[in-house]
Amino acid sequence: MRSLFLVTLVVPDYDAAIAWYRDALGFALAVDDRLGDGKRWVVMKPDPTVGAGILLARAGDDEERKAIGNQTGGRVSFFLKTDDFARDHSLYRSHGVEFIEEPRHEDYGTVAVFKDVFGNFWDLIEHRQ
After folding, report:
1. How many angstroms separate the Cα of 52 from the Cα of each of 44, 45, 55, 60, 120?
2. Which of 53, 50, 32 lies closest to 41, judged by CA?
3. 1-59 architecture in CATH?
4. What are the distances in angstroms from CA 26 to CA 29, 74, 111?
5. Under DSSP, is residue 94 helix (H, G, I), strand (E, B) or coil?
6. Which of 47, 59, 94, 125 is the most buried (most CB within 10 A)?
7. CB count, 10 Å around CB of 112?
């Protein structure tokens, strides 16, 4: 059996990224190991017990810094599944999350695109039953 368990997200600062994903989106800090030379292995997860997480990787050079907020060339990078779109949409807006569109109802469910604090695009999505 195989499963995807981590994706890398390049960020300018570990602590700022931890704070935003924790405070704005309610993610849990699953791992924060210091590796030496200022590097850390930082994993944030929407649910600390199941599912994939994001590995926060601090940009180490100019090339990596250019990727912050644009890791997929302006396309939606991440897809955050919820069991209650209205609840999470309202909660995120109250935490200052910037939605770049109004929620829309598609054949597959309800979705809206938001930007994280670094400029990456995310879909908040609740699939139809």
Report:
1. 9, 7, 10, 24, 18
2. 32
3. Roll (3.10)
4. 10, 24, 18
5. helix
6. 125
7. 19
**Chain position carrying tokens 């779109």:** 85
Which residue has better confidence, 4 or 119?
Answer: 119
Is 74-129 a CATH 3.40.50.300 domain? no
Return d(Cα 115, Cα 80) in angstroms, integer. Answer: 12
Distance CA 82, CA 107 (A): 16
The 10s digit of each residue's pLDDT in 30-86 is 999 999 888 999 999 999 888 899 999 999 999 999 999 998 988 999 999 999 999
Distance CA 117, CA 97 (A): 8
- CA gap 69, 101 in Å, rounded: 18
Please report, for the chain, the start and end positions of each structural domain, with discontinuous segments joined by +: 1-59, 74-129
The pLDDT-based confidence of 8 (bands split at 50, 70, 90) is very high
pLDDT of residue 2: 86
Residue 14 · residue 40 · CB < 8 Å:
yes
